[in-house]
Amino acid sequence: MKNITSLEDEMRGIAKYELSNGQWIQLDAREVRDFGLRAVMRRLGHDHLIGNERVKVIQDGEVIGSFPPDFDPMSIRSTSYFYRPRTDDFQRRDDAWVVCGSLGPGDLEAIPGFVWSVTGRTEE
Length: 124
What we know:
The protein is of the alpha+beta class. The chain has four helices and eight strands; from the N terminus they run E-H-E-E-H-H-E-E-E-E-H-E. It folds into two domains: 48 residues, no CATH class; 62 residues, no CATH class. 20% of the residues lie in helices and 27% in strands. Strand 6 and strand 7 form a beta hairpin. Helix 2 packs across helix 3.
């Protein structure tokens, strides 16, 4: 799934996603933020459209890990008191998430679902 929410959608409280089958869906942005994308899609009976393939994470031109397919920066619940997500920390480009170079290992580990790649650090 790819977030295709426009500025106008954000102003109207809508979160818009492109599904793997080429269709798109509009959701309540507050629900996505409060409950997470997977939970909202499950409630609607569409969680099978999210898929299971993890999305690679790139920082400074190197693949450093992966996020789950339903990762959405809008609904991050950091597990660390020291890291609060900012809007410009994540950018979706094609088939990957590009993360800001200022995010350190502790920041990334505070994001639920992040897994280090084999080439970098590993988490079991």
